[in-house]
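User: Predict the structure for this protein chain, please.
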Amino acid sequence: MITVVGTGTGAPLPKDVAAGAALVVGGRRHLDAVVLPAGAERVVLGPLAPALDTIAGYVEKELPVLVLASGDPGFFGIVRVLAERFGAERLSVRPGVSSVAAAFARLGLPWDDAVVVSAHGRALRTAVHVCRARPKVAVLTGPGAGPAELGAALTGRDRVLVVASALGDPARERVERVSPAEAAARDWGTAVSVVLCLATRRGPDLRDAPGAPLVPEEPPVPEEPHVPDVSLVGKVPRALAGAAPGPSRWALEETEFAHRDSMITKFEVRALALARLGPRLGDLVWDVGAGSGSVAVECARLGAAVVAVEKSADGVSRIRENARAHGVEVDVVHGTAPDALDGLAQDPDAVFIGGGGRELPAVIRACAPRARRAVVVAMAALDRVPAAREALTGAGLACDGVLLQSSRLTPLPGEVTRLAATNPVFLLWGVRSPVPNRGVDQ
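Assistant: Here is the predicted structure, written as structure tokens:
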């Protein structure tokens, strides 16, 4: 049997926890905190592979093994690799308090509505995009993906970072609230346990006060809340942990967006565009030539971080208005593509290009090499299709497309109905061949 004991953010390890173990594996500070039995081997955790091989030798001989870990070892911890290597039936897990739970507890905040994302041994981009899209996020850090790097990526955003270091160590524990810019400017060392990223708001009495405290923003109320108990009237009880559930519908009616002279991507086109873009939590999507921002808003509602690029000033205002109306965040860039794309530092997972125009091939050529997954292009003009397709395939994307034309039921006087045809739209999409084993966090 392999006994896995979590500690570090709650009660200290009992000195005799290693009694009877033939092999004790753990971090140096955990090993130093316990009394090892006479003759027991001690392995300091560094690279996992050698430690797992040592454990395997003891398992084959049916000798007891103890693994010491921080917090809850089943939460982004060593339990996963141990179960995969030796089988869950061989494990006896005694969890401690996770660093995420401890960090929120230090602030006196609930965390059943928080999103937890690990940047330890993973690309930082996923954590950054989740922090941009969600108001309450816990980031498990790692080398090259700590508070400084996270702060640099979020500088200028309405967020406060809570950096929790050495949680559970009475002499060294620190919990500090800083702005992203302040986090980026510091060397945090190696003791950081977790970083909380919280959306902020300032009350009118605090707006101009220097050093005013940043207050976590209330989570959004889910659409159409179901209240099963009359004692809970006026409250929204949570039934699911993590971020609020995704929207119950998408491809919204055009009437649900502010737009000018029907200059908006129709919901039939938007439905297929969303299916080909595949926006999800942890993604970054560009909406280029965003117009009313209907595609940008829908991608944000589905969990993605979104940048909308729009050349007209009234269009920029309209996008922001629509984002506020639907309770999502959309970064809006006022500029003309493709030049406006040069200032976007982070490559997108998917790109939607609307509007067409003479610059369409150049816009596609600017977007396609940077898109990690897909580029979707909507056009009304048949003449633009060959050049758009050539630009997609020229960037190494596999191209496909359809002509969409729908007829909607429209009432007529006398309680009868006719079919009213919408304008035809060409939708092309270019898809990059998937990289083997590249998941959402790569």
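Residues 48-60 form the longest helix (13 residues).
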